[in-house]
Amino acid sequence: MKKHTRNYVNLLILALIVFGLIFVIFNSKALETPPSPFEKYYAGDVRHFRANLQEAQDVSVYPSEDAVRSLLLNPDVYKVYIAYFPNETENAYYAASSFEIGNKLGIIYKNLYQGDCNVSTEEENDGSTCLVFCYTGRKCFNSLPINSTDELVPTDVEPVILLLGSSHANRTAVTIDNYLITVEGNTFSEQDKPYSDLDLAVAKLILTLMV
Q1: Which of 77-81, 121-125, 187-191 is the most confident on average?
Q2: CA separation (Å) from 139 to 121, 154, 165, 173, 177?
Q3: Buried (b) or exposed (e) across 154-170, using 16+ Cβ within 10 A?
Q4: How far apart are CA 51 and CA 54, in angstroms?
Q5: Do 104 and 126 belong together in one domain?
Q6: Is 110 found in the same domain as 20?
Q7: Mean pLDDT score, 4-32
Q8: Do residues 200 and 184 lie in contact, with contact meaning Cβ atoms separated by under 8 Å?
Q9: Which domain holds residue 26?
Q10: Is the pLDDT at 134 greater than 90, yes or no?
C-alpha cells in the first residue's frame, strides 16, 4: 500500500512538473509576441494610438525633445490651446488630432501628479475641459480654430500647440519656438496605411512626454 501511495505521489509530482513546463512555454511565447505598433504601455495600462509608434519615433523634434518636455510638463501650466486653421477637407483630421492630444495629455498629467488627488473634470465658460487636482490646481485643454497666427498669444502657463496639415505644411515634424509648439503633417494621405503624417507627428509629441 505504501508503495502504491509513493508511486501515486511521484506521478502527481511528475504531472505537476509537466503542467508547469507547458505553462511556462506557452506564456513565454505569449511574452515574446511583439506588442501592437499602435500601443504603448504607460501609467499602468495599454494606451492606443492612431499612428504606428515605430514610425512616429523617426519624426524630428526641433530644437529638442527636452524643450518640449520643459514647456508642457511645467507644473505651472494652466491651459493648453490646440489651434488649427479650419478647412472643410481637413477639419476631421484636426478634430481627431485635438482629441488625441487632449486625451493623452490628461493621462500624462494624471500620472505626473498621481500623488495629488484628481477631484473632478469641469468645463470652463470658454469651452475648455479641465482636470481639477486638489493641490496642483487645474490643467485645461481648449481647441482653437484660427484665421491667423496673429491671434495666438502663447505663454509659459498657456502654451499653444498649432496643428498644420498639408495645406500649410511641407514637412512632418514637431517644432517648439518659445511657448508655441507646431505639429506638422506633410500629407493627409492614408494610402497603404490607416493614418496620416499629422497622426505621426502628434504621436511623436505624445511619446516625447510619456517618459
Answers
A1: 77-81
A2: 10, 15, 26, 25, 21
A3: beeeebbbbbbbbebbe
A4: 9
A5: yes
A6: no
A7: 47
A8: no
A9: 1-33
A10: no
The identity of residue 193, as a single letter, is K
Q: For residue range 119-132, list pLDDT tens digits in order.
A: 689 999 999 999 99
What's the confidence (pLDDT) of residue 107? 93
Q: Are 56 and 47 in contact (CB under 8 A)?
A: no
For residue 91, what is the DSSP state? H
Maximal CA-CA distance, the chain:
94
Strand ranges for the chain from DSSP E: 39-42, 45-48, 60-62, 79-84, 118-123, 129-133, 138-145, 160-164, 173-177, 180-184
Q: Are residues 43 and 58 in the same domain?
A: yes
Strands 118-123 and 129-133: antiparallel
Q: Residue 155, CB half-sphere, CA atoms under 13 Å: how many? A: 7
**pLDDT (mean) for 9-18:** 49
Judge contact between 125 and 133, C-beta under 8 A.
Answer: no
Domains identified in the chain, total number:
2
The verdict on 29 and 71 lying in the same domain is no
Question: CA-based angle 142:158:163, to the nearest 5?
Answer: 55
Q: Range with the lowest mean pLDDT among 139-153, 155-169, 182-196? A: 182-196
What is the pTM for the complete model shown?
Answer: 0.82
